[in-house]
Amino acid sequence: MRSLFISAGVLSMMLGISFVGRMYGPQEEGLQEWGYAAVIWGIILFYAAMKQVHYVLLKILSGAGIILHGPPIILWIIFHGSTITDGPSAFHAHWAFSLPYLYIAAVCLFVIGMPPKMIKNSFKG
Protein backbone atom coordinates (compact mmCIF):
# COMPACT_ATOMS: atom_id res chain seq x y z
CA MET A 1 0.00 0.00 0.00
CA ARG A 2 2.96 2.28 0.58
CA SER A 3 3.72 2.21 -3.14
CA LEU A 4 0.11 3.21 -3.93
CA PHE A 5 0.46 6.26 -1.70
CA ILE A 6 3.82 7.17 -3.21
CA SER A 7 2.47 6.90 -6.75
CA ALA A 8 -0.68 8.89 -5.89
CA GLY A 9 1.42 11.59 -4.20
CA VAL A 10 3.83 11.91 -7.12
CA LEU A 11 0.96 11.92 -9.61
CA SER A 12 -0.82 14.65 -7.65
CA MET A 13 2.35 16.74 -7.64
CA MET A 14 2.75 16.31 -11.40
CA LEU A 15 -0.89 17.24 -12.06
CA GLY A 16 -0.62 20.26 -9.79
CA ILE A 17 2.55 21.45 -11.49
CA SER A 18 0.82 21.21 -14.86
CA PHE A 19 -1.80 23.72 -13.64
CA VAL A 20 0.69 25.95 -11.83
CA GLY A 21 2.82 26.08 -14.98
CA ARG A 22 -0.25 26.83 -17.12
CA MET A 23 0.44 23.86 -19.38
CA TYR A 24 -3.10 23.99 -20.74
CA GLY A 25 -2.87 27.64 -21.79
CA PRO A 26 -4.33 30.79 -20.24
CA GLN A 27 -6.60 29.77 -17.39
CA GLU A 28 -8.54 31.21 -14.50
CA GLU A 29 -6.59 32.05 -11.36
CA GLY A 30 -8.49 29.45 -9.34
CA LEU A 31 -6.98 26.64 -11.36
CA GLN A 32 -3.48 27.78 -10.51
CA GLU A 33 -4.40 27.83 -6.82
CA TRP A 34 -5.85 24.33 -7.18
CA GLY A 35 -2.51 23.31 -8.66
CA TYR A 36 -0.66 24.59 -5.58
CA ALA A 37 -3.08 22.66 -3.33
CA ALA A 38 -2.54 19.47 -5.36
CA VAL A 39 1.24 19.85 -5.11
CA ILE A 40 1.10 20.41 -1.34
CA TRP A 41 -1.28 17.47 -0.85
CA GLY A 42 1.02 15.27 -2.95
CA ILE A 43 4.06 16.25 -0.88
CA ILE A 44 2.23 15.51 2.38
CA LEU A 45 0.98 12.17 1.01
CA PHE A 46 4.48 11.24 -0.17
CA TYR A 47 5.89 12.10 3.26
CA ALA A 48 3.14 10.10 5.00
CA ALA A 49 3.98 7.09 2.82
CA MET A 50 7.64 7.30 3.79
CA LYS A 51 7.00 7.62 7.52
CA GLN A 52 4.90 5.48 9.81
CA VAL A 53 1.94 7.76 10.52
CA HIS A 54 -1.27 7.08 12.40
CA TYR A 55 -4.00 5.42 10.34
CA VAL A 56 -6.46 8.20 11.20
CA LEU A 57 -4.16 10.71 9.49
CA LEU A 58 -4.03 8.47 6.42
CA LYS A 59 -7.82 8.34 6.30
CA ILE A 60 -8.05 12.14 6.69
CA LEU A 61 -5.50 12.60 3.89
CA SER A 62 -7.50 10.20 1.73
CA GLY A 63 -10.72 12.13 2.36
CA ALA A 64 -8.97 15.36 1.46
CA GLY A 65 -7.67 13.68 -1.70
CA ILE A 66 -11.18 12.77 -2.80
CA ILE A 67 -12.38 16.32 -2.13
CA LEU A 68 -9.40 17.76 -4.02
CA HIS A 69 -9.37 15.38 -7.00
CA GLY A 70 -13.08 14.65 -7.35
CA PRO A 71 -14.12 17.85 -9.14
CA PRO A 72 -11.50 17.54 -11.92
CA ILE A 73 -12.84 14.06 -12.73
CA ILE A 74 -16.32 15.45 -13.26
CA LEU A 75 -15.16 18.59 -15.10
CA TRP A 76 -12.91 16.76 -17.59
CA ILE A 77 -15.84 14.51 -18.47
CA ILE A 78 -18.45 17.30 -18.63
CA PHE A 79 -16.33 19.60 -20.80
CA HIS A 80 -15.14 16.87 -23.20
CA GLY A 81 -14.50 18.51 -26.58
CA SER A 82 -14.74 22.08 -25.25
CA THR A 83 -12.04 24.73 -25.22
CA ILE A 84 -11.22 25.21 -21.56
CA THR A 85 -8.78 28.13 -21.63
CA ASP A 86 -9.38 31.84 -21.12
CA GLY A 87 -7.99 33.20 -24.34
CA PRO A 88 -6.70 32.01 -27.67
CA SER A 89 -5.70 28.37 -27.43
CA ALA A 90 -6.28 25.20 -29.38
CA PHE A 91 -6.41 23.06 -26.24
CA HIS A 92 -9.61 21.03 -25.91
CA ALA A 93 -10.76 18.99 -22.93
CA HIS A 94 -10.97 15.22 -23.27
CA TRP A 95 -12.46 12.69 -20.88
CA ALA A 96 -9.16 10.75 -20.80
CA PHE A 97 -7.58 13.60 -18.83
CA SER A 98 -9.72 12.45 -15.89
CA LEU A 99 -7.93 9.07 -15.66
CA PRO A 100 -5.04 10.19 -13.39
CA TYR A 101 -7.57 11.80 -11.04
CA LEU A 102 -9.62 8.59 -11.07
CA TYR A 103 -6.52 6.64 -10.04
CA ILE A 104 -5.84 9.00 -7.14
CA ALA A 105 -9.49 8.89 -6.04
CA ALA A 106 -9.49 5.07 -6.23
CA VAL A 107 -6.40 4.88 -4.01
CA CYS A 108 -8.05 7.25 -1.53
CA LEU A 109 -11.30 5.26 -1.49
CA PHE A 110 -9.31 2.06 -1.02
CA VAL A 111 -7.58 3.51 2.05
CA ILE A 112 -10.81 4.88 3.51
CA GLY A 113 -12.43 1.45 3.17
CA MET A 114 -9.54 -0.45 4.74
CA PRO A 115 -9.80 -1.63 8.34
CA PRO A 116 -7.32 0.07 10.72
CA LYS A 117 -5.41 -3.16 11.43
CA MET A 118 -4.72 -3.69 7.73
CA ILE A 119 -3.44 -0.11 7.37
CA LYS A 120 -1.16 -0.51 10.39
CA ASN A 121 0.28 -3.77 9.03
CA SER A 122 0.95 -2.36 5.57
CA PHE A 123 2.94 0.59 6.92
CA LYS A 124 5.14 -1.34 9.38
CA GLY A 125 8.88 -1.19 8.94
Topology:
Blueprint: H1 2-20, H2 29-50, H3 55-78, H4 99-113, H5 116-122
Helix pairs in contact: 1-2, 1-4, 2-3, 3-4
Descriptive account of the structure:
Keywords: Membrane, Transmembrane, Transmembrane helix. The chain crosses the membrane at residues 34-50, 57-79, 91-114. The protein has 125 residues and is an all-alpha fold. It has one domain. Helix content is 70%, strand content 0%. The protein has 5 helices and no strands. Helix 1 (2-20) packs antiparallel against helix 2 (29-50), helix 2 runs antiparallel to helix 3 and helix 3 packs antiparallel against helix 4 (99-113). The longest helix has 24 residues, at 55-78.
Cα(first) to Cα(last) distance is 13 Å
Tally of DSSP β-strands? 0
Shape: elongated
Instruction: Tell me the helix content.
Output: 55-70%
Q: Which residue ranges are poorly predicted, with pLDDT under 50 across at least 5 consecutive positions?
A: none
* Tally of distinct domains: 1
Could you tell me the radius of gyration in angstroms? 16 Å
Largest sheet, in brief, is: none
The number of helices is 5
State mean pLDDT (0 to 100 scale): 84
Please state roughly what percent of the residues sit in beta strands, choosing from under 5%, 5-15%, 15-25%, 25-35%, 35-45% or over 45%: under 5%
Provide the succession of SSEs: HHHHH
Secondary-structure class: mainly alpha
